[in-house]
Specification:
The protein has a single domain, classed as Outer membrane protein transport protein (OMPP1/FadL/TodX) (Porin, Beta Barrel), CATH 2.40.160. The longest helix is centred in the N-terminal third of the chain and has 17 residues. The chain starts with a helix and ends in an 8-residue tail after the last strand. By secondary structure, the protein is mainly beta.
C-alpha cells in the first residue's frame, strides 16, 4: 500500500510539468486558454455529465459523489480508488481558404479517492485546468506591402484539488472541493512589413494562482427496488486569481532573428504589474434515472455569467464575452453485470452528446462546440477495477467572419483501480 501511495504522489508531481502543452487550438488565444474536461473518461463518454455516481469510480465533477465510494465493498472502511486518464486528440483546422491538421497527447488527470467510513469519502488529485498552445498568422494589405502579424502562446493553469463528500442522511449527500489553480501563460506577437528588414515584437507573461470552491448537493432516492432517481446541484464559485505580469517590447532583425533593441515595460507605473482575473461562478443542475448495474440516462445544464469575466492585462480588441451554457445528455448500458459465460455482457457501454455555447464572441460571431461521445468500460479481475476506452467526435467554431473551424477526433484511455484499505484482520 505504501508503494502505491508513493507512486501516486510522484505521478501527481510529474503532471505539473506535463500538463502545460495541452492544446493546439487557435481559440486558446482567448482568455486563459482552452478549458480542460475536468472529468474522468467514464463521465466524459456520457457527454461529460457528473450526475451519476457509483461505489467504484471517482467522480471529479461532483464532490458529493465521494460519499458513495466503497459502500458495496463489505469492509469497515471500504475501498481505495486510484484513477488516471490520458487522451490523444486529432484536429483539422479549416479557414475560408486553407486547412491544416495537428495532434496532441495529454495526461488528463491523476486522482485518489477513499472512504474514511461509510458515507464519508475523501479525494485529492491534480489535472490541467486550462491549456494555451496556438500559433497563427494574420496578413493585411496589398501584396508587396502587407503587414504581417504572427501570434503564438503557450502554458496554462494546473489544478490541485481536495474533495470531501458526506451522506447527511440516506440517499442525501453534500460535498465540497477546494481547488488551487496555478501556472504561467506566455504570449508573443511579432509584427513586420513585407520587404522590410526589421520588425517589432511584444512578449508578455503572467504567473497566475488562486483558489475556488465547488459545492455539491446530491439526492438519489430509490423509486422502487430496482430503479433510482439521480439529482444534483453544483456551484463552482467565482475564481479570483492573481497574476504577476511582465512585458517586453522591442525591435529585431527578420534576417538574423536577433533583437536590435528591447526593453522591459514598467508595468508598475501603469498599475498592471499585479492584476486580478475574475472567472465567474458556474451553476450546474442534473437529473437522471436508471436501474442499478444495468442502465442509466441523465442530462445536465450548466450556466456561467461569462460576461463578467475580466483580465485587464490580456484584453483582446475583437473579443467580447457573453454568458456561457452547456447542455449534456448521456448514459450507459450493461447487458449482464454478473455474467460468468460472456465477458462482453459485463462490459459497460457508454454514449452521450454535448452542446456548448462557449460565451466567446469573436468578430461578432459566437464560437460554439458540439460533440458526440461513446466508449467502453472493460472489467479487470474482480470487476471492481476497469479499463475505460472513450471516443469523441466534435466541431467547434466556424469559417465565417475570418475564424477557424475545428473538427476533432479524441481518444481517451482511463484506468480505475480499486483496492481494500484499512482491512480489519479477523482471527478465527
Amino acid at each position: 500500500m505504501v508503494k502505491k501511495i508513493v507512486f501516486v504522489l510522484v505521478c501527481l508531481v510529474a503532471l505539473n510539468g506535463y500538463a502545460q502543452n495541452g492544446t493546439v487550438s487557435p481559440y486558446s488565444y482567448f482568455g486563459l486558454g482552452e478549458t480542460s474536461a475536468s472529468s474522468t473518461v467514464e463521465n466524459q463518454m456520457m457527454g461529460g455529465i457528473g450526475v451519476y455516481a457509483d461505489s467504484i469510480h471517482v467522480n471529479l465533477r461532483n464532490p458529493a459523489a465521494y460519499s458513495k465510494l466503497g459502500i458495496k465493498a463489505g469492509e469497515s472502511f471500504g475501498i481505495t480508488t486510484y484513477t488516471a486518464g490520458i487522451s490523444h486528440k486529432q484536429t483539422q483546422l479549416k479557414s475560408f481558404s486553407d486547412q491544416q491538421s495537428s495532434a496532441v497527447t495529454n495526461l488528463d488527470y491523476l486522482s485518489l479517492g477513499f472512504t474514511l467510513k461509510k458515507g464519508l469519502g475523501l479525494g485529492f488529485g491534480v489535472m490541467p485546468y486550462t491549456s494555451v498552445g496556438y500559433s497563427f498568422v494574420d496578413e493585411q494589405g496589398a501584396e508587396g506591402s502587407r503587414i504581417i502579424n504572427e501570434y503564438s502562446g503557450e502554458g496554462g493553469l494546473n489544478r490541485i484539488y481536495l474533495s470531501l463528500g458526506y451522506e447527511v442522511f440516506k440517499n442525501f449527500s453534500v460535498g465540497v472541493s477546494a481547488n488551487y489553480n496555478f501556472g504561467v501563460v506566455e504570449s508573443l506577437r511579432i509584427q513586420s512589413t513585407e520587404n522590410v528588414q526589421y520588425g517589432v515584437k511584444d512578449e508578455r507573461s503572467s504567473r497566475i494562482d488562486g483558489m475556488d470552491l465547488n459545492y455539491a448537493v446530491y439526492y438519489t432516492p430509490e423509486v422502487d427496488e430496482k430503479h433510482t432517481l439521480y439529482t444534483s446541484l453544483r456551484i463552482n464559485t467565482q475564481a479570483n486569481l492573481s497574476a504577476r505580469n511582465t512585458k517586453r517590447i522591442g525591435s529585431f532583425s527578420l534576417l538574423t532573428q536577433q533583437d536590435v533593441e528591447a526593453i522591459d515595460v514598467n508595468l508598475e507605473a501603469q498599475g498592471l504589474k499585479e492584476t486580478g482575473i475574475k472567472i465567474p461562478t458556474t451553476a450546474t443542475v442534473g437529473l437522471g434515472y436508471g436501474e442499478k448495474m444495468k442502465w442509466f440516462l441523465g442530462f445536465e445544464y450548466s450556466y456561467q455569467q461569462l460576461s463578467d469575466y475580466s483580465n485587464v492585462f490580456l484584453e483582446i480588441d475583437n473579443l467580447v464575452y457573453d454568458d456561457a451554457s452547456t447542455f449534456a445528455l448521456g448514459g450507459f448500458y450493461i447487458p449482464n453485470s454478473s455474467s460468468f459465460e460472456s465477458y462482453l455482457s459485463r462490459v459497460t457501454y457508454r454514449a452521450g452528446v454535448r452542446m456548448d455555447q462557449t460565451g466567446m464572441v469573436v468578430n461578432d460571431k459566437e464560437v460554439n462546440n458540439f460533440g458526440i461521445t461513446f466508449g467502453l468500460g472493460l472489467p479487470l479481475g474482480n470487476n471492481l477495477s476497469n479499463l475505460n476506452l472513450g471516443f469523441e467526435l466534435g466541431r467547434r467554431g466556424t469559417t465565417s467572419a475570418d475564424l477557424i473551424e475545428e473538427s476533432y477526433f479524441k481518444v481517451n484511455v482511463g484506468l480505475s483501480l480499486n483496492d481494500v484499505w484499512f482491512r480489519k484482520r479477523k482471527i478465527n
